Amino acid sequence: MGTSAGALSSLLLGILLTSTPGALGANPGLVARITDKGLEYVAQEELVTLQSKLHDVTLPDFSGDAKIKYLGNAHYEFHSLNIHSCELLGSALKPLPSHGLHFSISDSFIRVKGKWKVRKRILKLDGSFDVTVKGITISVNLLLGSEPSGRPKVAVSSCSSNIRDVEVHMSGDLGWLLNLFHHQIESKFRRVLESKICKIIQDSVTSDLQPYLQTLPVTMEMDIFAGIDYSLMEAPQATAEILDVMLKGEIFSRDHRSPVAFLAPVMSLPEEHSRMVYFAISNYAFNTASLVYHKVGYLNFSITDDMVPPTSNIRLTTKSFRAFCPRLARLYPNTNLTLQGTVVSAPFLNFSPGNLSSAAQMEIEASVLLPNSVKEPVFRLGVATNVSVMLTFNASKITGFLKPEKIQVELKESKVGVFNVELLEALLNYYLLNTLYPKVNDKLAEGFPLPLLKRIQLYDPVLQIHKDFLFLGTNVRYLRV
């Protein structure tokens, strides 16, 4: 019975995790959608696994009393029952509106081999037998929900099974005699198997699958700075054609998690059903990531003269600044400068149909490097830049690439008089395009992980950009080992 539980668990986990505590009324940052096409594929693939595992199932012994011709009343036992062959010909997995999932198997058969014993007072007979069970039909409704921990839960709300025909053939000592009451044995087999099928399924869900679901992690580490929260916001929602799983989709600081000051937007998902799986990822996921990396100063930078290309017409020295800021050169002759850049606030990603963009506001403070490594601020710049964002996704994650525009620089404060910032603007453009943006693109190339099972390959993807969210559609295939 334990192996059959594992087989069913494999099928159900394929659904719950391909689809794997939020505040009441809050919107999800990530929605995983499985269409009827995707559920059909999962049912077909997992049926192959279930069929192979059924060979390891040990069926329960059963016994009884019967009136046997020529012997009268006798006690019989059937034991060591093993499934010799089976064929699960038809399966279906469909969304069950306002409930969860409906799983069914139909027009299937199994062949069971085992041993028999008959006892009549001092007379003892034994032998072997073959049973062919035809026309097996199983129908199960699964109620899907969520725990306060944000983990999924599942329960069997109804189960029924039916067997169309049972054929028994016995061999051994006086096996021909037992065949005379085969109709009694066949009837007994049918009743035993029909009663055991739903019990096995119920035990599988209650004792195997549900406890396992409670061990699933609802967060995942992304790097040393950030993690992602995949906890369920509410019970999965089923309609006639789709199953939607609402996940928090929040990027949080691994060092200190704190509440986010804004909510995820409402996502009005398109009525798309041509792919097996869809992911809707709101700007909430990306913007909470921006908060984390801004807080740790990931986008802050420092520029010193040794970082300026040798061919540059401007150096980070007061001598180089003499032409457009003579007072600086007089006050600090032959002194090196350093530029310290800080992003004023976390840059948020803006979604509009077909387009992704972001705007960053920075402040750059210039200081002269005095003896004993003392830095003395001399002027402060305001820097504004816009970037467009290109996104792609592969087998397990979304990756991005920034395509920046030229920056705009203005003098915010100066202790050395007003001066033209055009030359500094050129220097900063060079640094940002060749140093800072490549650093950000390297991080974006690491990607946003999607909540998928291992050994699943995505193909035939499609990416749409809507107001406030991305909508990714893909087909999937299992990679068998």
From TrEMBL:
Top-level taxon in the UniProt lineage: Eukaryota
Gene it is expressed from: LBP
Quaternary structure note: When bound to LPS, interacts (via C-terminus) with soluble and membrane-bound CD14.
Subcellular location: Secreted
InterPro entries: Bactericidal_perm-incr_a/b_dom (IPR017943), BPI/LBP (IPR030675), BPI/LBP/Plunc (IPR032942), Lipid-bd_serum_glycop_C (IPR001124), Lipid-bd_serum_glycop_CS (IPR017954), Lipid-bd_serum_glycop_N (IPR017942)
Record-annotated Lipid-binding serum glycoprotein N-terminal domain positions: 33-256
Family that this chain belongs to: Belongs to the BPI/LBP/Plunc superfamily. BPI/LBP family.
Protein name: Lipopolysaccharide-binding protein
Matches recorded under CDD domains: BPI1, BPI2
SMART domains cross-referenced by the UniProt entry: BPI1 (SM00328), BPI2 (SM00329)
Intrachain S-S bonds: C159-C198
Lipid-binding serum glycoprotein C-terminal domain boundaries: 271-474
